[in-house]
Amino acid sequence: MSRHWSSRTQHLSTTRTGRIQFRGPSDPGQVRSLWLVLHGYGQLAIDFLDRLGAVDDGTRLLVAPEALSRFYDANAPLQSHAEAAVGASWMTREDRLEEIEDSMAWLDRVHAEVRRSVMDAPLTVLGFSQGATAASRWVARSTVPVARLICWGAGVAPELPVGAGTPLARTPCTIVIGTRDRFVSGERVEAERQRLTAAGHPARFVAFEGGHRLDDATLRALAAET
Asked: Which of left, alpha, beta for 34 (phi over 0: left; psi -120 to 50: alpha)?
């Protein structure tokens, strides 16, 4: 629908309360490894942590910040919102750049808060699906040491520089894709492999038998590497 009036847009920053879910030791002295884990589109942090039990060994602290934009399941009738599932999103196409900046600032805040008590444990950043692109964006712009990045069910955000000398090239990266992932075809995996290889990015690709989901055996294998 065309508009017959002119408009102008202004952006204002505001304070927003975010939610973080934790899984693992509550005593900082027992933490040997720190994982910052970012859920996918339409998920909530606590539900995502349910799927990461394979790496909860009593020494690994899993920190799951929840994306700031929540919504009801669009497939639920309006009259049933009391029972409709709620999910969250890291960003949409609407005001995309501003939402990305807000997400990055939120992850900065989460990391700073956690590091107040867990100062020395090596940091793994794992993102699933939409969370994978958010994770790669945060690693690309962050000044904090990241031991490794795991992008699961998606590749590195396409606009990011990945060549030699960039933060992403300096961070060991593993890209995990299920063999039956309906959102990531074999052609897309190969295109991502070629893009990163051409830039000199030393990413490793891992496949497992399954769809667009986490996989316990693969999680355990990755966890055993640290």
From this structure: beta
Residue 173 identity: C
Q: What is the pTM of this model?
A: 0.93
Residue 166's region, left for phi above 0, alpha for psi from -120 to 50, else beta, is beta
**In the CATH scheme, what architecture does the domain 20-223 have?**
3-Layer(aba) Sandwich (3.40)
Whole-angstrom Cα distance, residue 114 to residue 58?
17
Contact call for residues 137 and 161 (beta carbons, < 8 A): no
CB 113 within 8 A of CB 28: no
Q: 78 pLDDT exceeds 80? A: no
Half-sphere exposure of 68 (CA within 13 A, CB side): 20
Token digits for 135? 């994770």
Q: Which amino acid is at 151?
A: C
Domain residue spans in the chain?
A: 20-223
